Amino acid sequence: MTKPLSVRAQSTGTSTFTIDSGSKHRIVLSSVEEDQGPSPMEALLGALAGCAGIGILSILRKMRQDVTHYEIRVHGERAEQDPKIFTDITVEHIFTGTNLRPESIQRAIELDTTNYCGVNIMLGKSAAIKHTFQIHKASEPEAQLPTL
Predict the structure, then answer these.
(1) Got the DSSP string for 98-138?
(2) What is the pTM of this model?
(3) What CA–CA distance (Å, rounded) separates 120 from 126?
(4) Per-residue pLDDT for 143 more than 60?
(5) Residue 91: which of 137, 58, 130 has the closest Cα?
């Protein structure tokens, strides 16, 4: 069994919370009205982007794909009625690199989002999630992502 995760949330405004993670990081979540940070639902989309991106990039490095830039854009549609959960989510993966193979990128997305990214798998229980990707050729080889 993995180590349990924990956070502490403290009210720091009318509708703002400062979240301290067990790993010693801090984020601020807020309502649209108070506008001190992203809303919890925006943060959830951000968590999906981060979770998928970390895993997909790791898989592509193992496949020896030369990704020099990677951007993820996530768009979520919510239900009209409370609790206004996400019903449809589109994740756009935009890759820049040298000699990137579409079949490798497609396989990395499939592997990560069906086997590794817990955020994608959990959200997929209530929302239809669609992943798309684009590939752009790198113009400057020196603008490389750091290797791990």
Answers:
(1) ES--HHHHHHHHHHIIIII-HHHHHHTTTSEEEEEEEEEE-
(2) 0.90
(3) 10
(4) no
(5) 130
